[in-house]
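Practice problem 4.
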């Protein structure tokens, strides 16, 4: 079963260890850290029954898919709204709720290529209750959209959202797929994820991005055609 691992160091690694050992306490809340390279770490604890609040990582995912959802404009004098070109959601489970609507808007209205690989036929997560209901519901709704969902060749535990934009940039969310479906939010929900923005073709971040895309293609998580789109969207912009 495939998975993704991200190596961190310095303050980011310290932040993650503190989150994992409940160094921030067990009460509901959001903790974030941004390093000098622009890497953002998000730790979010949501308790069942708390006042309505979108999980922070879901907010990050929705803003990545649809930049118009962002609540901040950095420089309004030089601002133009970028549009997604290619979107890949890797999760054990099919998306629903706000996330599905955002993906459908990106594919059907914006015209982005949206790819949501699913587990192989016969995988227990597609057949066991209640996840089988989620898969049937998703397949019925997806059939009316331009979203592409191919079956993986083998089971996967990878969790990632990759979005490229028409200005040559990209955004990656790694580490949690709890934002994908309501089935994972029934009780106390804790999420830890990295948000990485790729804005330069020259620096080490772009090299890391390219290596990740190539690895996902080699593992069969995404097709060679999708991997090529993810690279070309940035390289040729």
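Answer key:
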């Amino acid at each position: 079963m495939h998975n993704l691992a991200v190596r961190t160091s310095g303050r980011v690694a310290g932040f993650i260890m503190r989150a994992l050992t409940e160094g921030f306490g067990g009460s509901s809340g959001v903790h974030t850290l941004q390093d000098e390279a622009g890497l953002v770490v998000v730790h979010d604890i949501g308790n069942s029954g708390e006042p309505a609040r979108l999980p922070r990582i879901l907010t990050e995912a929705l803003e990545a898919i649809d930049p118009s959802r962002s609540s901040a404009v950095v420089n309004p004098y030089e601002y133009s709204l970028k549009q997604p070109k290619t979107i890949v959601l890797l999760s054990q489970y099919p998306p629903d709720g706000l996330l599905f609507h955002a993906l459908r808007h990106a594919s059907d209205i914006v015209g982005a290529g949206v790819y949501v690989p699913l587990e192989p036929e016969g995988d227990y997560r597609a057949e066991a209750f209640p996840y089988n209901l989620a898969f049937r519901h998703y397949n019925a709704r997806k059939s009316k959209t331009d979203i592409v969902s191919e079956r993986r060749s083998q089971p996967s535990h990878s969790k990632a959202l990759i979005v490229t934009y028409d200005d040559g940039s990209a955004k990656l969310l790694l580490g949690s797929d709890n934002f994908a479906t309501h089935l994972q939010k029934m009780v106390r929900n804790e999420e830890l994820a990295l948000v990485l923005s790729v804005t330069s073709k020259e620096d080490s971040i772009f090299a890391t991005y390219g290596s990740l895309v190539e690895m996902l293609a080699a593992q069969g998580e995404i097709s060679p055609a999708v991997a090529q789109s993810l690279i070309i969207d940035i390289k040729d912009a």
